[in-house]
Every structure is written in structure tokens, then in C-alpha cells.
Design a protein that fits this description.
It contains six helices and ten strands. It has one domain: P-loop containing nucleotide triphosphate hydrolases (Rossmann fold, 3-Layer(aba) Sandwich), CATH 3.40.50.300. With 226 residues, the chain is α/β, with parallel strands linked by helices.
Length: 226
Amino acid sequence: MTVPALLELDRVTKRLRDGARAELVAVDQVSLAILPGECHRIVGASGAGKSTLLSLAVGLVQPTEGEITFRGEVFSRARESHRSEVRRRFMGSMLQQLGLIASMSVRENLLAAERMVRAPRRDELAAYTELLQAFDLTPLLEARVQTLSGGERQRVAIVRALVGSERALFVLDEPTAHLDDKHTETLIALLSESMARGCSVIVATHDGRLSRLGTSRVLAQGRLDK
């Protein structure tokens, strides 16, 4: 019996314009199918289109051509409100800009994310407890994000992405860029556990340590290797 893909990109192209400059093809005719429990590691030079590809995968931008299907639904044709709801419930993402609010504390950032997914409850950070400990963030809960180092901010964004009982897909952009060996190993272990439960992973990275997670695909000038 053939297992249907969780996420499928079918000949997806994304064209961008930068002011008066000529049109740029950031992603060019990319086709990719990710099964439940799989990891695809996207590698390539800076400017190859990796971040754009991840933004397309989570529905933050729509393709110029082609279709993106998620959980059997043509996700790329849905309204933004629906894509946003699907993203909050079923996808955990850490993209290039991290998406943290610098003037808020770590606790406030996590609570804001939690309330977008669920109704408030008495102990809203309960789901984060083990991850906060694993990434050595518990002592920093009341610290404002703007006072944190790059590695600490990255760990907060990772923790926020990984929490959620309905998560089916994790999409991570250079998640270990500012992590030491200890926290990189923690991330690899957690992603491996999630994959064993059927979650899928797309990660854009230059870090060879993440090759243990699964298939490596090379993106060059917007095109993905066969």
C-alpha cells in the first residue's frame, strides 16, 4: 500500500522582484514529496533559494506557478486565513527571521504562541517545561529577547516550533547556526523522536551533523537536484 505524501510540491516556481531590478526566479520548477516520518535536508549556497522554498512550504508565500499539497489539500490555493490556521495547528516552523518579539520576555513570546493555537489555560507553559530544560532556557524565562545572545534566541525559537500535539511537519531554516554541540545534539535527538512518531522535517542547513536525520537534497539557482 502506497503511503500518501504529507507535503508535496509539484513544479513550484516563485518569481520575485527587487525594486526596479529584473525579475528573479528564486525557486524554479521544484518538485518534492515528503512522506510521514521523513526528513529532507536542503543544502546549497547562499542565495540558492532555500529560505524561499521553506516559506513556500509553510504557506507564508504563494507560488507563482505550480501547486503545494499538504495533508491531501491543495494548500497553495487556500485563503491566507486558512493557511494561517493550518500552519498554527499542524506545522512547527523556525524561519530565517525567528519571529520573536524583542521587547517581550521569553515567557511572553511563548505564551503568545500558545494562545494562537489553544484557548488559555491555567498553566499555559506546562507543555514547554521539558524543552525549556533541555535547551537550558528555564533561567531565562523572564529575560527580554533583546537581551539574549544569538544562540539563546535561536533556542527559544526552536522550543516554540517544537511544541504542539498536532504537529505533523517541522520546517527549520539553519536551526543550528548559533548552537553549540550540546544543543545541536539535543535538537537532533528531539527531531529523531518526532520522526519516529510520524512527523516530517524539512531543514535548510550547511551543518553536516544534521545529515543523520535523512535525505540530503541540493538546491542550486532555485532548482532542486533529482
